[in-house]
Amino acid sequence: MPDQVIVFTDLDGTLLDYYTYSFEASKEGIELLRSHRVPLIFCTSKSYAEVIHFREETGNTSPFIVENGGAIYLPREQIEQFKPFVKADRLKQSGDYAALELGADYATLRRVFEQMKKAFGNSVTGFGDMSVEEVSRYLNLAPRLAAMAKVRRHDEPFILRDPSLLESIQQLSRQNGLKVYPGTRFYHLMGNTDKGEAVKELISLYKKVYGTIVSVAIGEGKNDEPMFRQVDVPFLVQKPGGSFTDVTLDRITRINAVGPYGFTFAVKALLNRSIKL
Length: 277
Prior knowledge:
The chain has about 280 residues and is of the alpha/beta class. The chain folds into two domains: about 180 residues, Rossmann fold, CATH 3.40.50; about 80 residues, Threonyl-tRNA Synthetase, Chain A, domain 2. Helix content is about 35%, strand content about 25%. The chain contains ten helices and 13 strands. A nine-stranded mixed β-sheet has the order 5-6-4-3-2-1-11-12-13, sandwiched between helices. Strands 7-8-10-9 form a four-stranded antiparallel β-sheet, with helices on one face. Helix 5 crosses helix 6. It is globular, with a radius of gyration of 18 Å. The relative contact order is 0.18.
């Protein structure tokens, strides 16, 4: 019997089109994984509210990771299988989900970001400084989705207008026990976690439930690199325009297709390969 396979995927620019947020081109890959009973785990910089929206849109039922590894959410119907392997005081109920919080809380991030604004002025603008209308225009998002994007819990996305300040900004964040990481559209002020730390934690839980597993990741951005390093089979898809993010990982498979098209090609490559596992 083949090992249990689990797939982690980035959303923006991978499962979703970078410009339109459509998942039309990734539907085939999504359905293929569903037909093979392979959990598809969203691992994204998006907020909890946004992920809930896209889970409903795509019919996803797996656990998910939000805000660059800030938290893992376990659906209510799956909590019992993971619960024996998680200390009870680590699980925090959040609606129909139990949360494993790994990142700093948003109030802490905003306090530090206010220090950044004092030090660097108009060179930095965070989500917390932007209106729903501004986020909507900047991201080409419908206002309803822009409002969801602004409800942050563990990550403050921000615009950096002067990249020469990055080293100083990183130093300030480290002095406060935080870090800054580049994303697809924004830089992110976060706690001492990332997508890789959350993926590592969730892989550990799946191993305790299923025994041996094969872990897979599909992504396109620099902030996906920590995720790639934690899995057995990493796939990198092309960015808009056809280029690849500079990822320093020799064993990664590059898929010559952009975003959600690349996602479906990666799934097909995985399933063809899985027959031999």
